[in-house]
Amino acid sequence: MTRGHIEIIQTAEQPTTDLESVGWSFDSHAQVLSQDSETEAITLVLQLPPGYRRWAGTHEHTAELYVLSGFLTIGDVTLGAGTYQLLPGGVMQGQWRADEACSVWMKTDGTPKFNPNRGGGERLPDPLNTTKMDWIISPIPGPPCGLLLKPLRVDTETGASTFLSGIVPQYHYPFIEYHRCVEESFLIRGDIRLGNSGLMTAGSYFYRPPYISHGPFYSHAGKLGLSSTDAPLDNHYIDDPFRSAEQNLADSQYEAPAPNLLST
Ligand SMILES: [Fe+2]
Q: Where on the phi/psi map is residue 57: left (φ > 0), alpha (ψ -120 to 50), or beta?
């Protein structure tokens, strides 16, 4: 395993790192949530100060952004809070500008290395203003009514996905589950209590390798979260909240692969 199990940390409690060492401009401050020790794929929250500038160039690997607060301008396109932007590796990005303080969730598929002033002529995908997207009822069997999704990125080959998940207030999900894929999630707003691991509030984050038992769940005020998987998500239910990943793996290893039920 090259990225360990992280069960509920708070972004505000993470130390601030300067990304200048990986080609980013001065003042590129970030709070790292998790990183793969082998590929250097990283999930973090950028904290860009007023007047921030980053030169044009390319990310070495594909990155995904979601603006949490403030405005980030990339080239001549301004992204406000709630906007998702896919930044394919090797595709030229215009200059980054933030006139006011700006906070951005970011996840990369590999090292976050940035190459200033280099890149191909391909065009960036259009940003997604998620505040205007329709919710869909989750097509993945299991959870009680009250869980909705906005798929943002789905790899049709691997089933890896990134999506917003919303749940209604007073959401009661009285089951203990595990998945056969990585599950990673950042809470944007609201709350959710996990019976075997604690309370998530705005800024809370977890990274779960496959087969980790978690639950049951209750949300008082509802929640909006940003989640990712590395393969199709499916739900397996068990009775013991402290059942080990090894036991879960042993029980499900002969099952057919999970179908990919998500699409953008
Ligand atoms: Fe889960």
A: left
Question: Which pLDDT value is given to residue 168?
Answer: 98
Is residue 182 within 8 A of residue 207, CB to CB? The reply is yes
Determine the topology of domain 134-252 in CATH: Jelly Rolls (2.60.120)
Q: Are strands 77-79 and 6-10 parallel, antiparallel or unpaired?
A: unpaired
Residue 135 DSSP code: P
Environment of ion ligand 1 (residues, CB < 5 A): 183
Q: Report whether 221 contacts 188 (CB < 8 A).
A: no
pTM of the model: 0.96
Question: Smallest Cα–Cα separation from 251: which of 173, 175, 142, 178?
Answer: 178
Is 162:109 a contact under the CB 8 Å cutoff?
A: no
**Measured CA angle at 161 (ends 94, 33), to 5 deg:** 70
> What CATH architecture applies to the domain 9-117?
Sandwich (2.60)
Q: Is the previous residue joined to 257 through a cis bond, with omega within 30 degrees of 0?
A: no
Residues 6+ apart with CB under 8 A from 157: none
pLDDT (tens digit per residue) in 132-156: 999 999 999 999 999 999 999 999 9
Same topology, domains 9-117 and 134-252? Answer is yes
Q: How far is the CA of 68 from the centre of ligand 1 (A)?
A: 23
Cis amide bond preceding 144, omega within 30: no
Ligand 1 center–CA 214 separation, angstroms: 7
For residue 2, report the distance from its CA to the centre of ligand 1, in Å: 20
Domain boundaries, the chain: 9-117, 134-252
